[in-house]
Amino acid sequence: GTRIEVRDLFYATPARLKFLKSPRTETGHAVEAVKRLAMAHPAIGFSLSDASRDILRFPPVPGDLFGARLVRLAQVMGRDFADNALLIDAGREDIRLTGYAGLPTLNRGNASAQFLFVNGRPVRDRLLHGALRGAYQGLLASDRYPLAALFVELPAPALDVNVHPAKTEVRFADPGLVRGTIVGALKHALA
User: Fold this and answer.
1) Which pLDDT value is given to residue 89?
2) Could you tell me if 156 and 172 are in contact, meaning their C-beta atoms sit under 8 angstroms apart?
3) DSSP 54
4) Under a CB-based contact definition with an 8 Å cutoff, are residues 90 and 160 in contact?
5) Which residues, in sequence order, are CB contacts of 97 under 8 Å at separation 6+?
6) 127-148 pLDDT, tens digit each
7) CA distance 118 to 167
8) Strand ranges (DSSP E) for the chain?
9) What is the pTM of this model?
């Protein structure tokens, strides 16, 4: 196992320290990062603690990829998601899309429960969120958002991950193909 301990992160660069938010806000960011990594890798156990308590604990999930992934998603997103999720497994050319998408009856007032991954990397990409929204168009009110955890796999040359220093944004060589794959697969599953 690997243990990562962070202390005095900005000791040598105090100028960065002044840009930190409250401890609660920064802890929330760390929790979100660990949750996203845990969703992408269900076979690996994750735990997060601060000086006084355990915040998260996700034991490794055995089994096949889809079964293990659904168990992990239930741990992170809640049992309601697992009970109301549709399996997504589709491909087009060199792109493979897997994951789970919630039924239209399971929705939220914001997009905080939409988790998107590209080649195992958690991303926040407008193209992917737009494709997800497009797939549910006509099934949800305009102010409602579906719950989903989608995993896009494609060859490395078809992807540029060096768009943003945090590596949370990506650019696709053929964005239309990626969008079409997502919209088509989700519409097929929802039908």
Assistant:
1) 96
2) no
3) E
4) no
5) 88, 89, 90, 91, 150, 151, 152, 153, 181, 182, 185
6) 999 999 999 999 999 899 999 9
7) 11
8) 46-49, 54-58, 85-92, 95-102, 107-108, 114-118, 121-123, 145-146, 148-153, 159-160, 171-172
9) 0.89
